[in-house]
Amino acid sequence: MSELDEFKATYFDECSELLAELEEQFLAIEAGDKDPERLHAVFRAIHSIKGGAGAFGFTGLVKFAHSFETLLDFVRDGRIELDPKVLTLCIRSSDLVADFVSAAQDGRELEDGYGGEQKAEFEALCNPDGAEEEDPEDFDIEFTPVMVGGADLAEDEDVFENPPLNLIADGDLDAALGDAEDDLANADVVFAGDGTDGAPEFGAAADAWTLTFTPLPALFERANDPLLLFRELSIVGDSQVNADIREIPELNDFEPFQPYCQWVITLKGDDVTEERIREVFEFVEGDCEIEVTPPGVLSERQTSILVGEIGPADGAPAPKSPPAPKQELDDVVDTAAPEASDDAPSFADLAGALGVDMAAEPVPEVEPSAEEVAAAKAAAAPKEEPVVAAAPVPEKIETPGPEASKGPAFGSATAKPKATDSKPPVQSIRVDLDKVDRVVNMVGELVITQSMLTQQMDETLRDKYQELVRGIEVLAQTTRGLQDSVMAIRAQPVKSVFSRMPRLVRELASKTGKKIKLEMVGENTEIDKTVIEQLSDPLTHMIRNSADHGIEDAEKRASRRKPETGTITLSAEQAGGNILIIVEDDGGGINRERVLALAKEKGVVAPDQTPTDEQIDNLIFAPGFSTVTEVSDLSGRGVGMDVVLSNIKKIGGSVHVRSNPGRGTRMTLRLPLTLAVLDVMLVSVAGCPYVVPLSSIVETIQAGRAEFGKVPSGSRLLQIRGEYVPVVDLATRFAMHTDAEEKDRFVVLCEAEGTNKLAIIVDEIIGQQQVVIKSSEENYERIDGIAGGTILGDGQVALIVDVQGLKTSRVNHRSSAAA
Amino acid sequence: MRVLTVDDSRTILAMLQHTLAGAGYEVLQAENGQEGLDVLGAENVDVVITDINMPIMDGIEFIKNVRASGQYQSLPILILTTETSQDKRDQGRAAGGTGWIVKPFDPDKLLSVIKKVSH
């Protein structure tokens, strides 16, 4: 399917939604609902249908929708009353829009004049006087050049309200600017002609257009930028940009949104026309003063700017510092030949500094005399519109031609609707996430009911009802399939989050001045949409942390014989029922001494504790913990890593950090594949059911066969394959009394993160199953050591053991790992 | 270069996405002005293209809010408009819109307009 077809499919999907919306709104309006928002919604719907139709060249639809929209616009403005008659017309017209849409979808043409009756009615309502309605097809902005007419100054005088900018360098300026700037500040003139002889009068270049451009504050307020305009001009032709910067104040007085400069630009090239020039300034029309004169012509105003001096007639002070070299105006006016002068101050440097492309050729400069200009200036006095050029406009003015913008976009000019040769578009529907979640939840419950049924199957039943058993087995299979399919709806590749990170790293690199590269692995790993949405912040914090605290500066890296460029690797992989997202850097690792000292200082760790290296590393996730004493620009505000932990916990994941001093740090996020269903082992403690996430279980051992040891503090350790693992008796931990004999109990060996294992002692292991997670926080409150709850098939509530939480909460128990 | 596209029409969003992504821009999407503000609050954006007629918060309000934020005074904002009349466009400009793009847009024209207003 081509892209165009895909867009069309999207469009028709959207249309059916919009049409349904129309119907709903009109029904409500008909029922007497006066909420103006309903009319707005109707208007937007028709507007959107029209917009898309235009893109695909569905002309009939565009035209009809446009007329309808015009009517709706009148109605929502209150210019037309929405009486029952108009309402009926609107409802009928919506039906017609639907007809047009479905015709377009089937590639049919409706007969000419379809809906003409309604259109006539719209017309009669909106335009009772019968004035011409604008052509709906004409979506292009008509470019209306502000044409340059005769240069009657006396006439122009009235037109201009605002006095022209004072072109004279103020005396203060000299004090403000250094000598070098002085030169620039006084280099008033700069007319960049090409120096050819025989230029017509007024000293204008024979083959170059001349523009004067004076921005107004509005130009900057709308985020337009003169430099971009100059860049654009340089595409139109060879441009030479000269800035008049005499008005630039001292830095202290500088207002970013004030225009202080004006520019004179010459533009040469075969394709240069006034239209093309005006087109460049399309977006700033009204936000600046522009004057364009064709080759060979200079307006009074241009001359005055070029001369850069206004005589005493204006009452303006003459420049204090040495004025720019002057030439007799005669040179300009009478001999009509601009004289090239090599020693005249050049604006090339300035323009260069402003990032403006300058033509390579030398810049001859023209200097009409001060007196002459003063006279001209006095005559030209206040103006608001661009001055009109004194010379006839060249005849060959091309029609403004954004050729490409006529007609439907996306190649639909040739896309004549033909149902026969186009494949049916892939159908898609948009569904509220809520609805999907409801399905996910119900499928979850179904899974549980199914597993409960399976549990009820004892041997006698199996023998007696073989058909039933087979049915239940098929049900189990189907349920699994159903569950997978539902989960797939919510799954998305992590790419959508990962793709934001390269930019972050680039920014971090430039802010820190370090060289950092980012490598990404496993971007196509899919994970639940909600999980993905929650990933952005934690990942940003982790990568910031790596760039800011992890990667060392160049010097340090050199001393450690590491490559100058630090590497941050971001990877995603599926590991069983989990997705692992790993941020790894080859930086300096965590400074454990400092972390521990700080943790003790902040009371995160008691003064007499000696946590393991791994525990110290993971202290960086403790709330309010930051190893940087001074707040840095990037990270180190003391919030960040604890946010990572809480965000990740919220979505049922865990964070683990492993640092190798001098070599780097590896942070691992373990995330559930889905948020809704969890594979668990069902156990019981003191007669109560608990579930332990299967993903964290390494193995189970009968307590009678396990070897336990004790450390002086009284904590028990499980000795297994030469490793000592801390032990948590769930009965003790949750303060329950159990009658089970020690030897009959079970040890569940868990590994939530990294190598730090934990042995949990339970009374009984019941079996494996899937459960739908219910948040304890949402339904009750956060419970230490409990990750949530679930309802079992028989209606009992079982709490989900939070292995990571149990581990963290025993940080004050000294644990010694032999490994 | 990141472009935030704000439009309540998925068709338009999809077409913008296609054209912009094809030209190497990173595209962010929002379905109304409020969402657009949310995105700007969370992400760095180089250029904004916004529709005018949108539910919840229309383009004009959106632009006003962006310009009022202080942080985004120099962010180029292009107004997407099908309006033949100058009305909406002028309102958009008055609110602080940098330029405009006329729907249905020609892909090349769209790209050249973005180039025109961005560094």
Please give a structural write-up.
The complex is a heterodimer of chains A (819) and B (119). With 819 residues, chain A is α+β, with helices and mostly antiparallel strands. Chain A folds into 5 domains: 3-126, Four Helix Bundle (Hemerythrin (Met), subunit A); 153-380, no CATH class; 446-489, no CATH class; 494-672, 2-Layer Sandwich (Heat Shock Protein 90), CATH 3.30.565; 678-808, SH3 Domains (SH3 type barrels, Roll). In chain A, the strands form 5 sheets. A 6-stranded mixed beta sheet of chain A has the order 14-18-19-17-16-15. Chain A starts with a helix and ends in an 11-residue tail after the last helix. Chain B has one domain (2-117): Response regulator (Rossmann fold, 3-Layer(aba) Sandwich). In chain B, 45% of the residues lie in helices and 20% in strands. Chain B is built from 5 helices and 5 strands. Chain B has a 5-stranded parallel beta sheet with strand order 2-1-3-4-5, with helices on both faces. In chain B, helix 2 (33-42) packs parallel to helix 3 and helix 3 (59-68) runs parallel beside helix 4. In chain B, 56% of the residues are buried. The model of chain B has no long low-confidence stretch (mean pLDDT 85). Chains A and B meet through helix 1 and helix 2 of A and helix 1, strand 5 and helix 5 of B.
